[in-house]
Amino acid sequence: MAYTLIHFVLTILTVLVLILDILSIWEVIFKADGRSSLNKAFWVLLIFFFPYVGLFLYLIFSRRRDYNTLDSPCLP
């Protein structure tokens, strides 16, 4: 029974990381208007080939607030 519980938890974590990877790649490609193409390609390849490490590095070092123009509030 313990093996089944461990397997279930690891499966849930893997699916969660997969969903976060897809959302991160979507954000890099479609929402980051100020990034260069080389910068976008770097982040997409890093997240794609190294899902856990790439996602962690993207969330920590990507400066998402500087490039995410669609979620910016409209201030007068």
From TrEMBL:
Domain Cardiolipin synthase N-terminal residues, every copy: 19-63
Signal peptide start-end: none
InterPro entries, per database record: CLS_N
Chain segments annotated as transmembrane: 6-29, 41-61
Bilayer topology term: Multi-pass membrane protein
Keyword set includes Isomerase: no
Entry keyword set: Cell membrane, Membrane, Transmembrane, Transmembrane helix
UniProt xrefs under Pfam families: PLDc_N (PF13396)
GO terms for cellular component: plasma membrane
Major localisation: membrane
Localization terms from the record: Cell membrane
Name of the protein this chain belongs to: Cardiolipin synthase N-terminal domain-containing protein
Annotated source species: Gigaspora rosea
